[in-house]
Amino acid sequence: MTVKPEDIQLSPGQQRLIAEQASRNGKPWQRVLQEALDYTGAADHEGLDSAFMDWCAEQVRGKDIISLDEAHHIPSRCSGSPAQDIIDGP
Q: In Å, how far are 21, 24, 29, 32, 50 from 16, measured between CA atoms?
């Protein structure tokens, strides 16, 4: 999708958020906006292997998977796990 720069407009709410962030951090609004854009781009590429992440998503697509909360409890049910050692105590 092609976006023309002249078509980009910020809502009053978006303008307020940028102004508040700039005031709170003592930075010019232009710098705050640029840092936000830089951070978003970095988060997309910062140490993540997108091909691997796509492969992982494909492996679980359409399958019954456990919740993150359930996954966190699995180590505590393993015999000899550090979590079980803490639960059992000395």
A: 9, 12, 10, 12, 34
For residue 9, give both structure tokens. Answer: 């407009």
- pTM value is 0.42
What confidence score (pLDDT) does residue 5 get?
Answer: 86
**Which residue range(s) make up the domain with 49?**
12-60
As a whole number of angstroms, the distance between CA 19 and CA 63 comes to 45
80's tokens: 């000899």
The residue among 41, 10, 15 whose CA lies nearest residue 29 is: 15
How many domains does the structure of the chain reveal? 1
Please check whether residue 71 lies inside any domain of the structure: no
Residue 67 lies in a domain: no
Residue 29 lies in a domain: yes
pLDDT 10s digits, 45-65: 556 666 766 777 777 777 777
Task: Provide the pLDDT confidence category of residue 26 given band limits of 50, 70 and 90.
Answer: very high
